[in-house]
Design goal:
The complex is a heterodimer of chains A (392) and B (223). Chain A is an alpha+beta fold and 392 residues long. Chain A contains nine helices and ten strands. In chain B, α4 runs parallel beside α12. Classes of the chains: A alpha+beta (392), B alpha/beta (223).
């Protein structure tokens, strides 16, 4: 091996040998103190050296590791992969890194990171190979724990989200039920007013009119008392009627919502010094009375807001069916909504949003030009595409 | 009512509320020219009673415990065409009067207005006149629908076939576009029919026209 250097003379040979020895010593010292396991191979890939750390990590002695003995340190499950990479690496002549498991004689397993390189002679001939092996078991474990923790967290977030979604759906369902119960209750109340109270009062009215007639025939001065009773009862019938109508405003007819809105706008027009208009250019038929009722209440709330809070002089209500959507618009020319801050109308706005959500409608409040507020509530037309036409 | 009456007009009371029938009977019994000949608390009873008592007039509540009173009016009129029918109802006349009149009733009185109107209405209907409130009389829908049967020519008759067709489809819930598609017309043509309808029927705007159209269709259906 060193034959080419022989001719250089005694002293030269001596100096070279010293230098080699020195390197040998340095390597041995480094290998001893290094915190990594070191294993060295000859040019054929046979182990010819391990440091103490490598022996400690693998649980193998130099006698066991020598030659191909080191292979038994590799976990059987990883052995094939490690060896094929090891062969490839020796062919390819490059630095490499790999992670795999060690199977120790005591039955324990350890994860290691191996980094290797070829050792070259002066004329770039391969002298052998060296692998430095770092124990990354703790690191791997941490990583696995972290991974598991993250997965666990994710799972819990998912569960919580599902819980929340279920909770929200349930709440929505309950809210809808509550409003439906309320609406049904109001309808029942309305019927009771009509059929119960209204009828009794009507009976009482006729009785008092008959009494008045009797007293008049007898020329009794009490006739006027009977007349006053009849007046009072009559007024009560009107009140019962108005109450009943107030709690059940949308009649169960295809054009019920259109008519109820027209009447609502008319009534507000009569009661307030505002210019109220109702626009409905095309028939808008809402067969679902619950939806019709919600839309009516939304309009009522929006109109009340406009009248009470907008400070404007004009309120326009529009009902239309556009592109298979029913849209209800209430627009005023007032001062607009105070941005962001809570104000009196807030409750009304929340009620509008709430009712809109229950019937699957979207609702937006926007600035109207040049000033004022526009509420637009829109929902897919329940009978979109199908005509409501009935056989005539 | 100073009119000399030889025989009192016979009135049948149809109401599922005894308290209303009692009160009304009390009131009518004070009148010299009318008398209660019988009472009925359901549609079936009413149909039997109208044959049994042969009343000149039946006063009918159109919400008989959920039964469609409009249907009852038609049936009463069918089995005894001579009986005059007066509806006495808690319900708003704007919602029901037209249908009741189209079905054959001659008058409509809301219970809230009964104090001043019931006797007047009874006598008017007995004289063979129609009786509705002034408010309803002013209603264009009413004028047109009701004039249709009389000698006066109803504006409905003045409509062209196309206009009537548009009105009917509008009243069935079709939009101008739907109508244009259905009749193979341009939407512009349909819109111009709508303009003419408003003019001929003297209606102020689109909501009024639509309302009229729905009333028209429902009145045709209740015939």
């Amino acid at each position: 091996m060193l034959s080419s250097n022989m001719v250089a003379g005694e002293s030269a040979v001596g100096a070279t040998q010293d230098a080699l020895r020195e390197r040998e010593i340095t390597f041995a010292a480094l290998a001893r103190v290094a915190p990594v396991g070191i294993i060295r191979f000859d040019a054929k890939g046979r182990c010819n050296y391990i440091n103490d750390r490598w022996a400690e990590m693998t649980g193998l002695t130099i006698d066991q590791a020598i030659g191909d003995g080191w292979i038994q340190s590799i976990h059987p499950a990883d052995r094939h992969a490690v060896l094929s990479r090891w062969d490839a690496m020796r062919e390819a002549d490059e630095l490499f890194r790999e992670e795999y498991r060690l199977a120790r004689p005591d039955g324990t397993t350890r994860w290691v990171l191996a980094e290797g390189t070829a050792l070259y002679g002066y004329s770039r001939q391969v002298l052998g190979f060296i692998r430095a092996v770092t124990d990354i078991t703790a690191h791997r474990q941490l990583e696995a724990e972290l991974f598991a923790a993250r997965a666990e967290l994710e799972l819990r977030v998912q569960e919580r989200t599902a819980d929340l979604e279920a909770e929200m759906a349930e709440r929505e369902r309950l809210e809808k039920e509550v409003l439906e119960i309320k609406d049904n209750e109001q309808r029942r109340f309305s019927r009771d007013l009509h059929d119960g109270l209204g009828q009794s009062l009507t009976g009482a009215l006729f009785q008092s009119l008959a009494l008045q007639r009797d007293l008049e025939s007898a020329q009794s001065p009490l006739a006027s008392n009977a007349s006053r009773i009849a007046d009072l009862v009559n007024r009560s019938i009107a009140q019962a009627h108005d109450l009943a109508r107030g709690v059940d405003p949308v009649p169960l007819r295809p054009d019920g919502l259109m008519n109820a809105l027209a009447e609502l706008v008319q009534a507000l027009c009569n009661a307030h010094p505002l210019d109220c208009a109702f626009e409905c250019d095309e028939p808008v038929v809402v067969e679902d009375n619950s939806i019709a009722n919600h839309l009516y209440r939304i309009a009522q709330e929006a109109l009340t807001n406009a009248i009470k809070h907008s400070g404007g002089s004009r309120v326009q209500t529009r009902l239309e069916r556009l592109a298979d959507r029913i849209t209800l618009t209430v627009e005023d020319d007032g001062s607009g909504l105070p941005a962001g801050e809570s104000h009196d109308g807030c409750r009304g706005l929340n009620i509008i949003k709430h009712r809109a959500r229950l019937i699957g409608a979207t609702v937006v409040f926007e600035k109207a030009a040049p000033h004022g507020t526009r509420m637009r509530c829109s929902l897919p037309s329940p009978g979109a595409g199908t005509n409501v036409e009935k056989g005539s | 009512m100073k009119k000399a009456v030889k025989t009192k007009a016979k009135v049948l009371l149809v109401d599922d509320h005894a308290v209303v029938r009692d009160g009304l009977a009390q009131l009518i019994s004070r009148e010299p020219d009318i008398t209660v000949c019988g009472e009925a608390s359901s549609a079936e009873e009413a149909l039997t009673a109208v044959m049994k008592f042969q009343p000149d007039l039946a006063i009918v509540d159109i919400s008989l415990g959920g039964v469609d009173g409009i249907e009852l009016i038609k049936n009463l009129k069918a089995i005894r065409p001579l009986v005059a029918l007066l509806v006495l109802s808690m319900h708003d006349e704007a919602r029901y009067a037209e249908r009741a009149l189209r079905a054959g009733a001659s008058g409509y009185v809301m219970k809230r207005e009964a104090r001043d109107r019931i006797l007047e209405a009874i006598r008017a209907v007995l004289r063979g006149e129609d009786y509705v409130s002034e408010r309803l009389q002013k209603s264009i829908v009413h004028q047109y629908l009701h004039a249709a049967g009389g000698e006066q020519k109803s504006p409905i008759d003045r409509l062209s076939d196309r206009e009537l067709e548009v009105l009917t489809l509008l009243g069935k819930g079709l939009s101008s576009k739907d109508i244009a598609d259905r009749l193979h017309l341009s939407q512009k043509t349909v819109d111009s029919h709508r303009t003419h309808l408003k003019e001929k029927l003297d209606l102020s705007g689109a909501p009024e026209l639509i309302r009229f159209a729905f009333e028209w269709v429902s009145s045709q259906e209740s015939l």
